Amino acid sequence: MDWGMANRMAQLIQSDGRCLFMPIDHGYFQGPTRKLEQPGKTVEPLLPYSDAIFVTRGVLRSAIDPRNTKPIILRVSGGTSMAGEDLANEGLTTSMEEAVRLNVSAVGISIFVGTHYEKESLLNLAKLVDEGERYGIPVMAVTAVGRELEKRDARYLSMCSRIAAELGARVVKTYWCEHFEKVAQGCPVPVVLAGGPQVDTEREVFDFVHDGIQRGAIGVNLGRNVWQNPHPVAVIKGIRAIIHENATPQQAQEIFEGAKHGEKVEVSSKRTS
Ligand code: 5RP
């Protein structure tokens, strides 16, 4: 791996081999998503606990302080909306020249396997990888399901993740599912977990993040279940402890409860490798 690519990957994936990416890109097809109406304000208190943020160039330029931020994963696919006919019909929205100008650590693109636009989205990924490799910029592929949340099972997600890796993605973002080891083991590049729509309790988030990590995910790219929670900083502290300190879901819950009440809870089993 060339120096630039290796350096960017190291900015994203920490020395313990794990990562916590914070996505605030949802507006590119959803508009002002609940609690993300002012993305700069939403993300500011979460930055100290995030290893990178996933964002479009518009929000990056307008809402993120270039002097005080984290590594950037630039969302470079889009062109569809919740009001349109088909979320899968995405194209590339941002050039590699722009990604270089913005000094990003990676670019991110959705693929829509099994849809009418499967081929276009996969060829977009392949083209982006060709350009990214030329400049030493890794590509994160997002295995998108659009409105069809029921697609999220091991058979489908392992197929999507493997295809993304075969086409050259350096990191794959996919959903947690039961038997997640089938997804992780079938994918030769690191896999991170998305959160999906908000679930009922933070404990459910701690449970699935912990399960996914145990079964081979290296971290998360998880947004709504953090910043749509009434206590976003407390949630991200719990998730961070699972990822970087090997906390159990119960320990993460205690960290969450403590943070909610302004207390600090220590986890003894900090990762060393
Ligand atoms: C939205 C995305 C998000 O980055 C991804 O879905 C993760 O966010 P969440 O945890 O809210 O699902 O790709 O376009």
SSE blueprint and pairings:
Elements (H helix, E strand, L loop, with lengths): L2 H10 L6 E5 L3 H4 L8 H5 L8 E4 L1 H7 L8 E4 L1 E2 L12 E2 L3 H6 L4 E6 L6 H18 L3 E5 L10 H13 L4 E5 L5 H5 L5 E4 L7 H13 L4 E3 L2 H4 L4 H14 L3 H12 L13
Helix pairs in contact: 9-11, 9-12, 11-12
Bound molecules: ribulose-5-phosphate (5RP).
Report on this structure.
41% of the residues lie in helices and 15% in strands. It is of the alpha/beta class and 273 residues long. The chain has a single domain (3-228), classed as Aldolase class I (TIM Barrel), CATH 3.20.20.70. The strands form two sheets. The chain has an eight-stranded parallel beta barrel, surrounded by six helices. The chain has a two-stranded antiparallel ribbon with strand order 4-5. The longest helix is centred in the middle third of the chain and has 18 residues, at 118-135. The protein is globular and about 50 Å long. 47% of the residues are buried. Ribulose-5-phosphate is lined by residues 23, 25-26, 54, 142, 194-196, 221-225.
